[in-house]
Amino acid sequence: MPSISLSVLNKTIVACRKCPRLVNWRERVAREKRSSFKDETYWGKPLPGFGDPRARVLILGLAPAAHGGNRTGRVFTGDRSGDWLYAALYRAGFANRPTSVRPGDGLKLRDCYITACVRCAPPANKPTIQERDNCLHYLEQEVPLLKQVRIIICLGGFAWDGALRTLRRLGHKLERKPRFGHGQEASIGPYILLGCYHPSQQNTFTGRLTETMLDTVLKRARALARRKRSKHLARA
Asked: How far is the C-alpha of 87 from the C-alpha of 143, rounded, in Å?
């Protein structure tokens, strides 16, 4: 795989038109808009990752929301899922503020990078298998470019499966496929996967995911990242 920079990869992602169904949907949503956002200019393109390129913790989601990231141009921004996630990142010390509004709002992440398995908003939030596989090619390039990442938080089973597929493509062998679960951990090569329920309204409104549960996963990720760093320094 040719070596490229993260900035070049992000430009490639933003220009992607591999999946006709997703292209049609994201652009249609951007034209028609939601009435509450009728005066806004929608992003309407694939979303690159966002955060600290020297991060040890990577957060992996499913795909942008039609009127969230597809509107604002930043992953997990502009919808209730993002509100939950960024507030938790602030509480855990990964973000300098508890809200994410749009690019250029002053938000900065520390030791954390956020990305998604699928970069375009899919209809009904359900990408096809082919669309997933098309987009995982970008994650396959992105992970090695985030050279310090050792902990991958997978928000939901889709992201868990996407991370496993990506790591296999990168040459990290699995004796057996670990099952997704909230708080589940799996070591694969130099990485540790952490399972976390997705902060969707379906999960947060029903109490399947609480703030405490999300906070606990983020604290665990920080502790594991520090442990990995200590082991690395001890070997150096």
From this structure: 25
